[in-house]
Amino acid sequence: MHIPDGFLSPQTYLPAYAAAGVAWAWAARGLRRTLDEETVPRLAAMTALAYGLGLVMVPIPGGTSGHALGVAMLALLFGVRLAFLAYSLVLLLQSLLFGAGGITALAVNALAMGLAGSAAAVLTFRGLRRLNETAAVALAAWASVVLPGLLVALALGVQPLIAHKEDGTPLFFPFGLSITLPAVLLPHFFIGAGEAVLTVLVWRFARARRWCSPLPLAGEGPGEEGS
Amino acid sequence: MTATRWLLAYLAAVVAVTFIHEAWLLAALLAAALAAGGAGRWRIARRAVLAVLTFNLTVSLGYAAVSLWQGRFSAAYLLLVNLRVVLLVYLGFWFVARVNLLDACRFSPTLSFVVTLAAGQIEAFSRALRDFRLAFASRNAAAPALAARARHAAAQAGHLLDKSVCMAAETALAMRSRGCFDDHAGLPPPQAPPAACKKP
């Protein structure tokens, strides 16, 4: 899902960096206010966890597999702020060390996958938890994959409209929304289903280990800190 | 030049490259970056090409197919976008090869701490996942069923969760034992030692 370097115009990534800067400051301030000296090691551990979850292969029906996103797991267990910061750091390390993603696309990727993905997961979970907890976790994980997919498709699909030569030749990503929306979203419906199964299994494991105690029901736990 | 200044120079170069829309100029900049890359230039260039190969090939072939079908094919566009992507990724790898990323993050002690700790733990997690995969492969002579693969993925994710929660607590204790935290913050200033402890 990562957008690589070179396909986003400055008209897109510079405002995205401004928005992401505000979001990073919001997340860091909330963490600093509510956590103690374990903030730094916990953020580092969650960053490594977010990276590691991205290496886990999610089985998809048909014998194929895709990489887990893991942001729903992080957000449900540790809150939106921590999930967003950890995921942003993962994207930074991936872009600089492995060339995956990219420094120009970092802000868009972080906002889409880290912030929108984790917020979608927590909001879906809170909205549906009273009906059925397992279904709420599954739908939260599915939403945490599909919503970022939609945002990435939109960011890519508007490039031909906002950055092109006088003759209409694109300067960055070449395909419009009519291609990017189905091309990105359709596979993510299935990847989201795989992510949902994985998240439910890990959620049960976490409950058995009693890690779910700080989980947000409404207005409590890390997801609500300082908000 | 300090590592932080290298970081700023790299970021400025990246932004500047995205404002260039002439293929010949990007090619000249790529040639200049290769020339300045030192002994490891071809290794870095190979890494950069391999890192972008899948995505760029998909986009380039897709663009060629769609634009030929619509009669709007532009070879100049393909050259421009591929040169730009390769140059940006080459600059990133060159920066990391030349500058210690941890030194470059020194402007923020917190960021430096987090990146240092995370980078070490990422290595540990990568090794653990490799062991998981090898063990899973060794236990399955035939292709495993979907349910088995799902359970395996969940076991890996659960193990990572378990390890990361423990690591956070252990690292906090290790940092405290090495004096990383100010234990006297918010406490009254230490009192003078009792007279019995003073040297005559």
Key descriptive features of the protein:
heterodimer; A: about 230 residues; mainly alpha; about 65% helix; about 5% strand; disordered C terminus; B: about 200 residues; 7 helices
Describe the structure in your own words:
Chain B: This is ABC transporter permease. Chain B: Keywords: Membrane, Transmembrane, Transmembrane helix. Chain B: It comes from Candidatus Desulfobacillus denitrificans. Chain B: The chain crosses the membrane at residues 6-36, 48-69, 75-97. Chain A: It is a multi-pass membrane protein. The complex is a heterodimer of chains A (227) and B (200). In chain A, strands 1-2 form a two-stranded antiparallel sheet. In chain A, strand 1 (57-60) and strand 2 (64-67) form a beta hairpin. In chain A, helix 1 (10-34) packs across helix 4. Chain A has eight helices and two strands; from the N terminus they run ααββαααααα. Chain A is globular, with a radius of gyration of 18 Å. Chain A is mainly alpha-helical and 227 residues long. Mean pLDDT of chain B is 83; it is low at 193-200. The radius of gyration of chain B is 26 Å and the shape is flat. Chain B has helices at residues 3-18, 23-36, 41-70, 75-98, 101-104, 109-139, 146-177. The longest helix of chain B is centred in the last third of the chain and has 32 residues, at 146-177. Chain B has seven helices and no strands. With 200 residues, chain B is an all-alpha fold. In chain B, helix 2 runs parallel beside helix 4 (75-98), helix 3 (41-70) packs antiparallel against helix 4 and helix 6 (109-139) packs antiparallel against helix 7. At the A-B interface, helix 1, helix 2, strand 1, helix 4 and helix 8 of A face helix 1, helix 3, helix 4, helix 6 and helix 7 of B.
